[in-house]
Amino acid sequence: MPELPEVETVVRGLRGPLVGRRIVGVRFGKTDFIDDPIALGEQLPGSRIASVERFGKFITLALQPLDTASRDFHLFIHLGMTGQLTSRKPYEPVVAHTHAFVELDDGLELRYTDIRRFGRMLLVPESGMGKFHQSVGRDPLELSQQEFLSRVGGRRARIKALLLDQKVLSGMGNIYTDESLWRARIHPARLAANLQPWQLKLLYRTMRQVLSAAIRHRGSTISDYRDAAGSPGEYQARHRVYGRKGKPCPRCHTPIRRIIVAGRGTHFCPRCQPSPRKKF
DNA sequence: CTTACGGCCTGGGTGC
DNA sequence: TGCACCCAGGCCGTAA
Questions:
Q1: Distance A156 CA to B10 C1' (A)
Q2: Which of A65, A75, A144, A267 has a 20 to 30 A CA-CA distance from A129?
Q3: Which residues in window 174-213 of A are less than 7 A from strand C by Cβ?
Q4: Residue of A272, A65, A106 whose CA lies nearest to A187
Q5: How confident is the model at residue A1 (pLDDT cuts 50, 70, 90)?
Q6: Which residue is closest, via its CA, to the C1' of C10?
Q7: Nucleotide nearest to A158 (CA to C1')
Q8: How far is the CA of A151 from the C1' of C10 (A)?
Q9: Of the residues A155, A205, A257, A264, which is catalytic?
Q10: A116 CA, B12 C1': Å apart
């Protein structure tokens, strides 16, 4: 599942092959994950890729039309659960469920593969970027501790739900939420308002440590995630709780439990992360 | 307004 | 061999 570290790894891998290239053509398979496939087909060819950036879990390509009188625009790509964005040579075999091909002027092509097609692709005009930035939460790696406390502190929602809420923070997903809460020794179902300031400060720190470490290890591959070159990540070997139900907690050897919190499968250590209902 | 929850999209994996 | 079912992330509608 591509979350912030996986998307960041993809973006870093795409900058080399993409920035400065001109798009010479596009082809699509299924298009139900694209907001306006006709507009993409018309506007992408001829435009130059000025930059590749990440906003939360979105990948954005800044595009300059060939016709310099036209306004710049942005291609937004969200990988959903199973989306892969890879830079390939045209003769490389096309893996199943590849639904978009963006041909570049140096002969390489950008391919979008998505088994579930929970991903999204859309064009955003320059004029729409302000609205987008308003609607999306802050990037956890660009967020100060003060901002984190003001966005999360005092709220009566479960801490896990808040970390996952893309309008609060953009980029956290199920894996890194569970991993951050374990490191901060906070039960995922606790209400943010009931946490002590020192606990939120600790969570801020563990969240950023986990995300940075995951980026250094090129993300987590559970099943489908691949980077821009098609390679899996390596951080899954360092997961402490995610996907480790029944296995011993690395800190205290208590078996890791899996429950549902905020509608999501949630892994935690019942000893290190005491339940909000139990007092002792 | 804030929070919780169920449903929907899709198809691979699992278990019978 | 087949097949029903579960699950995933994001989003939306509805209810308290």
A1: 33
A2: A144
A3: 174-175
A4: A272
A5: confident
A6: A80
A7: B3
A8: 21
A9: A264
A10: 9
**Within 7 Å: CB of A160 and strand C?**
no
Give dist(CA A225, CA A230) in Å, integer: 9
3-state secondary structure chain A: CCCHHHHHHHHHHHHHHHCCCEEEEEEECCCCCECCHHHHHHHCCCCEEEEEEEECCEEEEEEECCCCCCCCEEEEEECCCCEEEEEECCCCCCCCCEEEEEEECCCCEEEEEECCCCCEEEEEEHHHHHHHHHHCCECCCCCCHHHHHHHHCCCCCEHHHHHHCCCCECCCCHHHHHHHHHHCCCCCCCEHHHCCHHHHHHHHHHHHHHHHHHHHCCCCCCCCCCCCCCCCCCHHHHCCCCCCCCCECCCCCCECEEEEECCEEEEECCCCCCCCCCCC
> What positions of strand B are covered by protein, i.e. any atom < 7 Å from a CB?
2-7, 9-13
Is residue A168 within 8 A of residue A139, CB to CB? The reply is no
Which residue is closest, via its CA, to the C1' of B12? A115
Range A215-234 average pLDDT: 91
Predicted local confidence at residue A280, as pLDDT = 36
| pLDDT of residue A173 exceeding 50 | yes
Residue A33 in tokens: 């994950």
For all residues of chain A together, what is the average pLDDT? 91
* pLDDT number for residue A75: 94
| Per-residue confidence (pLDDT) for residue A243, from 0 to 100 | 87
- Pick from A179, A154, A144, A150: which is nearest to A164 by CA? A179
Query: Quick check: is A183 catalytic?
Result: no
As given in the structure block, the two tokens for residue A38 are 């006709």
What token pair was written down for A280? 């002792």
Q: Is A2 a catalytic residue?
A: yes
